[in-house]
Design a protein that fits this description.
The complex is a heterodimer of chains A (313) and B (249). Chain A has 313 residues and is mainly α. The chains are: A mainly alpha (313), B alpha/beta (249).
Chain lengths: 313, 249
């Protein structure tokens, strides 16, 4: 029964997202392709954060750092004339993983509020680094003249083609996080969140597992950064602003922590609401803020907990 | 070298001005059940936590199976063969009883950097976990959420997890605390069934449990061990009676 509802939920979700471009094409509303592509890119970022926040209990308040690193990897290589996506994307992912490894190595030894503050501090450091480097546009950011090239296999300047690429990568990321969370590795991560003293007493050292998860999450978010840079064809230090980190965190919480569908649902609802409200009034944040607070108070399990078939276990 | 599994020498731990453990010498023989008793605040949990590696001693040494384990932390000692239950039940509340024990098996089944195969469908983890649950009488409750088990069942689960790590030394911190008569009787029966096969250190307030289970008893008062001996000797020891047991025992 439960598995049945899950199957229907995911089938509807995949079908709806796959059919969106032809449908809005008929309606002559290409704007929605852009919007949902953005939603899906943020769903990748949120799914990667969910691995450490939802399953690992590591409340990282600096996850936007990897959006920035992934984005700047694409932007900087493109600036120097290296437009191959085969080079840009592995560099985006690899650089994000390395920085995550370094930040994680320092921050994971701390816990609770200290962990939050250290991750925030590192990301702010990167944000100001982005502002200070004039060569890459400093505060104003930098336009990416040529999007990532994949030997002519796919043209990322084509909104529909890049939409489907993002769609595939997003479901791939969600499935990957889903598998990791249920593997031996994921069980250690979740157990350490549930009861660290017990984990240590039966012989697990949570540190190395957490650090590994933190690095994987950084790498996946770096991919989202590369996608975002191609989506906007523009990179700015704002990719790494702390409010961006907060937004990604909010998507996870709103969608439902430690659930596979949660990050996508959270990204969808948050960004669609933001867009609708922004079209209606310029003071949209005044409305969105309280709505978010209410949703956290009344839906503790997040959207995944109230939509049939969206929850996991 | 000898039949001592655990040799503790001069173990000391202070919290500010409070000397919680003050030069403790303590031995456990292979196969014995060694109880540690003492009044509240005597330093029993501090002592156990230093044995398990959760607390670092200020001074002293701990040798385990002839090897110095003093610098090792809890996870490393668990790998050497220590397992403990906590005074306040420590389990994975959001997981099922079977998950809890399967995790304990997994902790001793090599590294866990395995990212793809679902752990819950691995017979190598689930089958032995089921056996340990059966062993402590929780077979029927395997799929219940640990948080939904009764207090007594949770303590049984904790023992099952400890046993699933195949420990050489089991540290039990007040295993029957807070239990009703029937529950505590079930736990004593369980521990009694392990006796002889499993080396145990038993920290306990319940004197009936201690005197029925222990081969030897050490009495800890204000961070010092004032007596060690067979249950009958401890019962007869006047110093112990004054310090702890009182006239009614």
């Amino acid at each position: 029964m439960r598995a049945h509802a899950q199957l229907i939920f995911w089938a509807v979700l995949v079908a709806a997202l796959a059919l969106l471009p032809p449908v809005v094409g008929v309606l002559h509303e290409p704007f929605y392709v852009e919007l949902v592509r953005r939603v899906m890119i943020f769903a990748i970022a949120a799914a990667s954060l969910n691995l450490i926040l939802g399953y690992g209990g590591l409340v990282s308040f600096g996850h936007a750092a990897y959006l920035g690193i992934g984005g700047y990897a694409v932007g900087i290589l493109s600036f120097y004339g290296m437009n191959s996506g085969w080079l840009q994307w592995p560099v985006a992912i690899g650089a994000s993983a390395l920085v995550a490894l370094a930040i994680g190595a320092v921050s994971i030894r701390a816990s609770g509020m200290y962990f939050i503050m250290i991750t925030l501090a590192f990301t702010q450091m990167l944000y100001y680094l982005g502002i200070s480097i004039e060569e890459f546009g400093g505060d104003d950011g930098m336009r990416i003249k040529t999007r990532s090239q994949f030997s002519g296999l796919i043209d990322l300047a084509d909104p529909v083609a890049s939409y489907y690429l993002v769609l595939v990568l997003m479901f791939g990321t969600i499935y990957l996080v889903h598998r990791i969370a249920r593997s031996r590795f994921g069980m250690v991560l979740r157990a350490a969140k549930s009861n660290e003293a017990r984990s240590r007493a039966i012989g697990f050292s949570p540190y190395s597992y957490r650090l590994c998860a933190f690095t994987i999450a950084g790498a996946l978010c770096g991919l989202a950064g590369a996608l975002l840079a191609n989506h906007t064809a523009y990179i700015t230090p704002d990719f790494m602003h702390w409010t961006r980190s907060g937004e990604i965190m909010f998507m996870v919480i709103l969608g439902g922590v430690a659930s596979s569908a949660g990050p996508l649902l959270g990204a969808l609802v948050l960004l669609v609401f933001e867009t609708l409200l922004a079209g209606w009034t310029e003071h949209w944040q005044v409305i969105l803020g309280p709505l978010l607070v209410l949703s956290v108070i009344f839906f503790r399990t997040g959207l995944a907990g109230i939509i049939p078939g969206a929850g996991d276990e | 070298m000898n039949d001592m599994l655990l040799e503790v020498r001069g173990l000391s731990k202070s919290f500010g001005a409070l000397r919680a453990c003050d030069g403790i010498d303590f031995d456990v023989r292979e196969g014995e059940t060694h109880a540690v008793i003492g009044p509240n605040g005597a330093g029993k949990t501090t002592f156990i936590s230093q044995l398990s590696g959760d607390l670092r001693p200020d001074q002293g040494s701990i040798r385990f199976a002839g090897q110095d384990v003093t610098p090792l932390r809890a996870p490393a000692r668990a790998k050497k063969g220590f397992a403990r239950s906590f005074q306040i039940t420590s389990i994975y509340r959001e997981f099922t009883a079977l998950d809890n024990v399967a995790l304990a098996i997994q902790a001793h089944a090599g590294h866990s950097f395995r990212f793809w195969k679902p752990a819950r469908s691995e017979p190598a983890l689930r089958d032995p976990a089921r056996q340990y649950l059966d062993g402590v009488g929780l077979g029927e409750r395997a799929n219940a959420l640990a948080a939904n088990l009764s207090h007594g069942e949770q303590r049984q689960l904790e023992v099952a997890m400890a046993l699933a790590t195949k420990p050489r030394l089991l540290l039990l911190d007040e295993p029957v605390a807070g239990m009703g008569t029937e529950e505590s009787q079930r736990m004593v029966t369980l521990l009694d069934s392990l006796k002889g096969r499993q080396t145990m250190i038993l920290v306990e307030h319940d004197m009936d449990a201690v005197f029925s289970l222990a081969d030897r008893i050490s009495v800890l008062v204000y961070g010092r061990i004032i007596a060690t001996g067979a249950p009958l000797d401890i019962r007869a020891n006047t110093e112990v009676r004054q310090a702890y047991l009182g006239e009614d025992s």
